[in-house]
Amino acid sequence: MSFAIPEDTAAVVAALEARGFEAYLVGGCVRDMLLGIRPDDWDVCTDATPEQVKLTFEGHRILETGVRHGTVTVFYGAARVEVTTFRIDGPYSDNRRPDAVTFVRDLRADLSRRDFTVNAIAYRPQGELIDCFGGRRDLSDKIIRCVGTPVARFREDALRILRALRFASTLGFTIDGDTLSAALECRALLKAVAPERVSSELGKLLLGTGAAEALSLGVGAIETVIPEISEMVGFEQHNPYHDKDVWEHTLTALASAPRDLVVRLALLLHDVAKPRCYTNLDGVGHFHGHPAEGAGMARKILNRLRFGSATVKAVAELIYHHDNRIRADAKNIKRWLGALGERRLRLLIAVQRADSCGHSPYMRGERLAELDAASALLDVIAESRPCVTLRELEINGGDLIAAGAEQGPAVGAALRLLLELVIDGELPNERDALLLRASGILSAQKNETV
Ligand code: ATP
Ligand code: MG
């Protein structure tokens, strides 16, 4: 075991054992420790019933996370541990949680309900590993394999299809042949899985280092949860900027992206509208309007999957702008800053970089160099906190009206013109200078309308 168990977590196991119960660390935390990765969360399984668990930790903060399903969350010192009674699951007829669970006395039965061999290893902090299904061998061979008969396990809970792809992506593992073919055979069952569960696994899959490989391996399952993706698969582009079909290009772009959910979702869907926008002029393919159309499609897809509204909005915005050139000159960068804000602009540059990495060599180097230059310029400009929005202008509409301007659209137009002048460096963002220029602009506007 190449990762130390935090003291307070070990103490939870010890407290249960001191009362005569069996207790083991189990699942993802054992898998991760064996891989030398710091676990995100700690799960303990035990033969104590939820009531007995609660009694054991009387005086500690406890959350009855899913008592009916046997889970109690225990807060013990610095530790937060999910303690679950050994159980086997009934059918998942709502595709969220098993309808009923049966508490059982023995660890092996509990391990047998778990999804993959690498997730079905239990560990006692004294040093004993219980590995009934060959999980350690699969960890060292880097294989995701179902516990039991794959088709039966995917029929019980089709989310496991996406979990297999997720673990392949995050751990960089392959999927055992029988497990993969069963996953693809059962993929239609994913349609009935709750969208929140799908998006949670899809998000984790996208953030893995092997996301592109996993998406490629499981494209059949991915198409089931996002049918629009099937339009991209095999769609040839007939364009000098591209030497791959739309889906292969998407995967190459994703493989070059930073680990950011919004960036990766945007890349997954940035060209989703290309097939619908395709025209062919003299043998060259064009995709006019695909960024705007794609932003709309992405919004629908991600809302359907119940991604959070901030995520949906950000992804749609990045897709909308993914083909708009970010020239490396100061005025242009400031306009982009005003339109998107610094954080979002950096994400857009990341999207465009990854997108370019998926292009054919034609003009790719030039495009990447321009993005690097834009990014370097952004670093400098952002540091100086320039005025790039009306909000940051040292005067507002009220100031103009107080100085004698008539309320109406002319005030807004004057402010926008002042902002342009400030962005272009032709006017300082100072009250007196702005007011002086404003009176000139407003009287010119008045003369124009007379
Ligand atoms: P991570 O927490 O890193 O996302 P994990 O493997 O711990 O990965 P959890 O969702 O926390 O995943 O689940 C904890 C354990 O519960 C898993 O390791 C697995 O043993 C079991 N498990 C979770 N979901 C399922 C499922 N749908 N079917 C069968 N077993 C599952
Ligand atoms: Mg976990």
Low-confidence stretches: none
Helicity range of the residues?
40-55%
Biggest sheet: strand arrangement = 3-4-5-2-1-8-9
Straight-line distance between termini? 84 Å
Radius of gyration (CA) equals 28 Å
Bound molecules: adenosine-5'-triphosphate, magnesium ion
List the SSEs and their pairings.
Layout: H1 7-18, E1 23-26, H2 28-35, E2 42-46, H3 50-56, E3 62-66, E4 71-76, E5 79-85, E6 87-89, E7 101-103, H4 107-112, E8 121-124, E9 128-131, H5 135-141, E10 143-144, H6 150-156, H7 159-171, E11 174-175, H8 177-185, H9 195-207, H10 211-217, H11 219-225, H12 229-232, H13 246-255, H14 261-269, H15 274-277, E12 279-281, E13 284-286, H16 290-304, H17 309-320, H18 330-340, H19 342-357, H20 364-383, H21 397-402, H22 409-423, H23 431-449
Helix pairs in contact: 7-8, 7-9, 7-10, 10-13, 13-14, 13-19, 14-17, 14-19, 16-17, 18-19, 18-20, 19-20, 22-23
The structure holds adenosine-5'-triphosphate and magnesium ion (MG).
Task: Give structural attributes.
binds adenosine-5'-triphosphate; 450 residues; Serum Albumin, Chain A, Domain 1; Beta Polymerase, domain 2; binds magnesium ion; two-stranded antiparallel sheet; 23 helices; alpha+beta
